[in-house]
Amino acid sequence: MFQLTRVGLVRLVGTGIRPPLTIRPLRLLSTDALAPPKSSRPRPQIPIEPRPRSRLLSRILLVTKYTGYAALSSVFGIVLLGTGIFIHDAFTYTDKHVHRVPVLPLALHPEQGGPKNLPIVRALVDDVEDDEAKKLLDKPKLVVVGGGWGAVSVLQTLSLGDYHVTVVSPETFTTFTPLLPSAAVGTVQVRTLVEPLRKIIARLRGHFIDAKAVDLVMSERLLELETVTSTGEPQRIYLPYDKLIIGCGSTSSTHGVPGLQHCFQLKTISDAQAIRRRILDNFETASLPTTTPEERKRLLSFVVCGGGPTGVETAAEIYDFCQEDITNYYPKICREEVSIHVIQSREHILNTYSEAISKYAEEKFRRDRVDLITSARVGAVHPDHVVYTVRSPDGTITNHEIPTNFVLWSTGIAMNPFTHRVSDLLPNQVHKKAIEVDAHLRVKGAPLGDVYAIGDCATVETSIVSYLLELVDEADKNKDGKIDFDEFDFMVARIKHRIPMAESQLQKVRTLFDLYDSDADNSLSLNELCKLLQEIGNKITALPATAQVASQQGKYLGKKLSQLAKKREVLEANGMHDLDEAVSGPFRYTHLGSLAYIGNAAVFDLGNLSFMGGLAAMYAWRSIYWSEQVSARTRFLLMIDWIIRGVWGRDLSRL
After folding, report:
1. Helical H runs in 426-546?
2. pLDDT reported for residue 630
3. Over residues 107-114, mean pLDDT
4. CA dihedral for 509, 510, 512, 517, sign (positive or negative)
5. Nearest to 467 by CA among 532, 414, 547, 541
6. Longest Cα separation, the chain
7. In this structure, are residues 414 and 456 in contact, taking their beta carbons and an 8 Å threshold?
């Protein structure tokens, strides 16, 4: 064994022996060194396709996402609403101390006077309760009789501070009458259709008296009222006025038919409540096992007398009630035995609408198996049946009977006792159904500018011949007792100003002149003029007794009275006698259309355009009535009622 040293290595070299190789540690080269040189361009990346997600899973995730958003939004909305209610309650429910309220002595102890020596209420208990009330004490006293469409429109249009306003009504609320048929079967609640009159007049700092008007003393400007004392006894008082607006509505016309005490009317909230109770009573009794088949058919027979909007809508609501609620919650035999009859004196129902609408409504009722009896007149109403006659096309009259336990009477209007009394006080009031007013809505025969009448209780005059002498005196420039064409043209302009409803009959002036110039002398004598004006007056159609007319009249009168209050001093200083004509033109009615509900469908008569249909028309009908509500409160309640009816059905409780 050799030991290698430096000396030994030298020795080996010298001897010719090759020295052993020395083993050096290897240095590993990196892979970078072995790789080819990098290019300056980047290497393209190969995309990795994601794992495909199922379509169902994607939809579930999307629905979950938006459901979460909706839930969070709902929670946020509820929290926000609750916070708002809490803050409102925190600032609302506070202690309010009222003490030492000033009251005029004359309000506590009114003086006696008038033709009947009754208490004269010259001051009310809240006349001086604060500074704002004191400012109105010396303003002209405006008294409004009634709380219907016309009266409420006046109150909503008047300007604050112009008048000392007092509303007189036996009801403490105003009613949205077009939806009374819906309230009669529970589609909407009666609370939804009413708005307290005191809330409406609060804007004007007005006053309210729960009473009914019974008489009028125009010479002393006293309105006689009947109130009820704490013991329930009637008491009469006088209420002074400077201006009086009569808007107390009307009653149903009887047409001389006996037995109407067995009928229902549908003009007030009380009427709707009574109808609802009777309908539910009939179905409950018909469900008893002891009720005979004949008696069940009589109980479930519903008769509507009158084919106008009220009668048609009531029949449609009863049909909907039977289809949607009676079928689900009462014995099926009750729905099978139901019969609905509509008795109409004309040839068609909804005869004031277009012919297309009448036919559409009749066809809808026939599909719904509603019995339409046209060209018929009710002869008598008995407790258990209705007697009517039908005139056939050949003139033959036949008698018929319908056993029933429910009769609705909806056939025209008539004067209520107060309007009848006012009409009797004035000799030139000849209309039998309403108080006649001029184009400025002033009661004819009453002191000029003192008494107005609007709504169902009034009718605008259509007679032109009564102004014959005045028109001739104004138009006859040469005073020869005859009217030539130029004078007649001037007369036509005056007629249009006095009676705007005559405009449609006075379009072709020259044709009218030549038509009634019987002797062809190019002039009209008094006899020829009288005949012309009389025939034109007969062709003028009176305004219908609808909520639309009353509302427009109320708005017109409210605006005019506000202008009159502002300009009275100037007009009186200038010696103006007719203040109404000085501040405003005559009332002009603009027909916006008529509509009616006929059972999950509706019809619209817009004059030259008629629209009718199913659900789309029904929702349009609802939208119009919703927008016409008196306040935001009733709009909200009406929307809630429609939702409740759609989700849970009508309330079947008998209250």
Report:
1. 468-475, 485-498, 509-516, 526-539
2. 92
3. 93
4. positive
5. 532
6. 178
7. no
Return d(Cα 617, Cα 360) in angstroms, integer: 13
The 3 state secondary structure assigned to 290-311 is: CCCHHHHHHHCEEEEECCCHHH
Q: Does residue 260 surpass a pLDDT of 90?
A: yes
Within 10 A of 626 (CB to CB), how many other CB atoms are there? 15
347 and 377 Cβ atoms separated by less than 8 Å: no
The tokens for 96 are 């309010």
Other C-beta atoms closer than 10 Å to the C-beta of 173 total 17
**DSSP helix/strand/coil, 230:** coil
**Dist. CA 164–CA 139, nearest whole Å:** 5
The angle formed by the CA atoms of residues 118, 142 and 453, to the nearest 5 degrees, is 95
Q: What's the pTM? A: 0.85
Q: Which two tokens stand for residue 452?
A: 């107005």
Tokens standing for 575?
């010696």
Q: Which two tokens stand for residue 562?
A: 């506000």
Q: How far is CA 518 from CA 312, 385, 479, 487, in A?
A: 48, 57, 21, 17
* DSSP single-letter state for residue 82: H
Number of neighbours of residue 37 by Cβ within 10 angstroms: 4
SS3 of 33-68: the string is HHCCCCCCCCCCCCCCCCCCCCHHHHHHHHHHHHHH
Q: Which of 76-90, 324-338, 489-503 has the highest mean pLDDT?
A: 324-338
For 111, other C-beta atoms within 10 Å of its C-beta total 11
| Residue (of 186, 330, 272) closest to 653 by Cα position | 186
**Contact in structure between 305 and 315 (CB atoms under 8 Å):** no
CA pair distance 51, 49, nearest whole angstrom: 7
Nearest CA to 166 among 193, 147, 194?
Answer: 147
User: Burial code of 211-246, b = ≥16 C-beta within 10 A, e = fewer?
Assistant: bbbebbebeebbbbbebeeeeeeeeebbbbbebbbb
Q: What whole-number distance in Å separates Cα of residue 551 and Cα of residue 557?
A: 10
CB atoms within 10 A of CB 534: 14
Q: Calculate mean pLDDT across residues 202-215.
A: 96
> Do the strands 602-605 and 610-613 form a parallel or antiparallel pair, or are they unpaired?
antiparallel
C-alpha 406/C-alpha 420 separation (Å) is 30
Coil, helix or strand for 18?
coil
If one counts every other C-beta atom within 10 angstroms of the C-beta of residue 50, the result is 6
pLDDT (tens digit, 9 = 90+) per residue, 492-504?
Answer: 999 998 899 998 8
Residue given tokens 């009469």 in the structure block: 236
Residue 371: exposed, middle, or buried by beta-carbon count in 10 A (0-12, 13-18, 19+)? middle
